[in-house]
Specification:
The protein is α/β, with parallel strands linked by helices and about 625 residues long. It is built from 23 helices and 22 strands. Helices cover about 30% and strands about 15% of the residues. An eight-stranded parallel β-sheet has the order 13-12-11-5-2-1-15-14. α17 runs parallel beside α22.
């Protein structure tokens, strides 16, 4: 493995997975094609040239730090194709439930575990084979349950442990699986471990968290790292004269994964849930658990590029692989379960290192490159380009090897709704929903449906910042106002990007509160629920809901759509994107118009067998806006 120094050329460093991804992200940031590194002049550029290229913003010390960081990855880019193996989770269709907003069984305005149990037949009828349930643990809810106070207790608003046991039993009765959220980068500051840690520096639990001694009585934090929710990443505790790290809210305290006893306590907790019979974990920000030991100051220019000061020292830390292998060995590796990691910032080559079957770490990860390759953030007001998404998906279809398996998703609880992102006018809403379903069900990888996605739920019509609960969006609004942006413009950005767009209550019917609750909903219900709801869509043959059912059923009965090779159809211009899936002498063809204008059909399909169309019956020679079709060729 090449050792990267300031004198190393970019093209030579590309054998290092981390370096290859970082160079590609650098090209993306400057909106330059990656081919300039592979075949162009930029491939001959050396790391030390970054200092001049950035007019000194990346100084020599920072360039050396970047090289040192890249050298932490000792493996080489995975290139061998590997052998395709079958697993139950590779064939699964996963549905994400955000329990607070799914269904309220007791009228208190908050969704709960009994509510999920009551609606399991709806999910079974949809055709999904596994449910990922967002956190339901005891929590003060500073970040909607991702700040856990007790890993072995159910949040009172959601029910009891008996309710959970019933939910798990009923899921298994329907031959479905349950994947639960695992949040172990941090705990709530109300967790017993942190309460003990606050008692004294000598307390056994003090070292469960990341502390640094103060040097000036709490005036200056230990470094310049930012919280991902704005502000410093440090809290000062006067009675200890120490700072404690929090990469998220001030109540989400980062665990010290270098502490072996802490790790063992986490593993014991994981095994406790596994012994209950759960079928896997979705691991929240799991790639953040290893930090560079000395926690150096972040480079200001890198912070500007990434949006977060300090991320380069923890998004793919020095002991990440070690911790994940140990975790697998001591917990989920001993069960027939599935794991998926949330790994923001990691690129395709790093993802392969985290999930290759022979490396014994995770099964899959969520990659968010398709969200950032648009050149915008969630808070920017722009029309999202599905063609660019497919270009990103293609990289994982063709370059991921049989050792690895992608996760294919458009929505989750942290992002605005896809239909609104792609088109603000609402003119193509159902068409966009259907073509996204077709894409997900015809690509290799585990497809994830977020609750309401199958109904074409869109963003919420928030009228004021007071209607928004999301701490990230509220902090973004406050920061924009502080910088001089008008309250009107700041609110427009906040409501565009807020995570509450996906967290509003599920639309069960056209009755009051969309049938979600008989009480007052904890957050605003979108006003379009009378048009988009499960009850009405179940009765309408051409609805988005019924299209999802057909697409899921086709995937389940067609092994080629799960295990088949992905082959892009060449010579076809944007916004049309076409591809084949081939497996065991069977061949399928997918054609997609990912734009708002009618396009000529690039390949004659008049003699092919049509299996599914977003338009019901395709026209002879044209593809309508956001039209997608699936054919069997042999």
């Amino acid at each position: 493995m090449i050792k990267i120094t300031p004198n190393t050329k970019f093209k030579d460093a590309a054998s290092n997975p981390m370096a290859k991804d970082m160079i590609e992200k650098l090209m993306m940031t400057f909106r330059l094609p990656t081919s300039l590194v592979d075949k162009g002049l930029l491939g001959h550029m050396k790391f030390k040239n970054l200092t001049a290229l950035t007019c000194g913003l990346l100084d020599k010390k920072t360039v050396q730090s970047i090289c040192d960081m890249l050298n932490l990855e000792t493996g080489e880019v995975i290139t061998d194709k590997g052998i395709l193996t079958k697993k139950w989770w590779k064939e699964a269709v996963v549905y994400q439930v955000y329990p607070r907003s799914f269904y309220d069984s007791n009228g208190d305005g908050i969704g709960d575990l009994r509510g999920i149990t009551e609606k399991l037949d709806y999910l079974k009828d949809l055709g999904v084979s596994a449910i990922w349930c967002s956190p339901f643990y005891d929590s003060p809810n500073d970040d909607n349950g991702y700040d856990i106070r007790d890993y072995k207790k159910i949040m009172a608003e959601f029910g009891t442990m008996e309710d959970f046991d019933t939910l798990l039993e009923e899921i298994h009765k329907r031959d479905m699986k349950l994947i639960i959220d695992l949040v172990v980068n941090h705990t709530s500051d109300e967790h017993e471990w942190f309460r003990e840690a606050l008692k004294s520096k000598d307390n056994p639990y003090h070292d469960y968290y990341i502390w640094r001694d103060a040097t000036d009585k709490g005036i200056t934090p230990p470094n310049n790292w930012n919280s991902l929710f704005k502000g410093s990443a440090w809290n000062y505790y006067e009675h200890l004269d120490q700072w404690a790290m929090h990469l998220w809210t001030k109540k989400q305290m980062d665990l010290n994964w270098e502490n072996e006893k802490m790790r063992q306590d986490v593993y014991d907790m994981m095994n406790w849930w596994l012994d209950k019979g759960i079928d896997g974990f979705r691991m929240d920000v799991i790639n953040f658990i290893s930090k560079v030991h000395d926690l150096p100051d972040a480079n200001a220019f890198l912070g500007l590029l990434t949006g977060y000061k300090g991320a380069e020292y923890y998004f793919y830390g020095p002991r990440l692989h070690e911790y994940l292998r140990e975790m697998r060995e001591k917990t989920f590796g001993n069960y027939d379960v599935y794991t998926v990691g949330e790994c923001g910032g990691a690129g395709i080559e790093m993802d392969k290192m985290l999930t290759a079957d022979y490396r014994k770490e995770l099964d899959t990860v969520f990659n968010f490159d398709f969200l950032i390759n648009q050149g915008h953030t969630n808070y920017d007001i722009f029309d999202y380009d599905l063609y660019k998404v497919m270009q990103e998906f293609e990289r994982f279809q063709t370059g991921y090897t049989n050792h690895c398996w992608p996760a294919v998703f458009f929505e989750n609880h942290d992002n605005p709704r896809i239909v609104t992102k792609v088109d603000k006018t609402d003119a193509y809403r159902e068409d966009i929903s259907k073509i996204c379903a077709l894409i997900q069900m015809t690509l290799r990888g585990v497809p994830y449906i977020y609750q309401g996605q199958e109904l074409s739920m869109g963003n919420v019509d928030f009228k004021s910042i007071e209607e928004i609960d999301d701490v990230q969006a509220v902090n973004t609004y406050k920061e924009l106002v502080r910088k001089g942006v008008s309250k009107e413009k700041a609110f427009l950005r906040a409501k565009t990007g807020t995570r509450d767009n996906s967290r509003s209550p599920f639309h069960w019917s056209d009755t009051e509160n969309a049938g979600f609750t008989t009480g007052k909903p904890w957050i605003k219900v979108s006003s379009d629920y009378r048009r988009f709801n499960a009850q009405d869509e179940a009765e309408r043959e051409d609805s988005v809901l019924n299209f999802y059912k057909k697409a899921i059923a086709l995937r389940k009965e067609t092994p080629a759509l799960v295990y088949g090779e992905f082959i892009r159809a060449e010579g076809i211009n944007a916004p049309v994107f076409c591809y084949y899936r081939e497996y065991n002498d069977e061949l399928y063809y997918v054609e997609l118009n990912l734009g708002k204008k009618v396009q000529e059909r690039p390949i004659d399909m008049s003699n092919a067998k049509l299996l599914l169309s977003t338009k019901g019956t395709p026209s002879a020679n044209q593809l309508k806006p956001f039209e997608g079709n699936l054919y069997k060729l042999k």
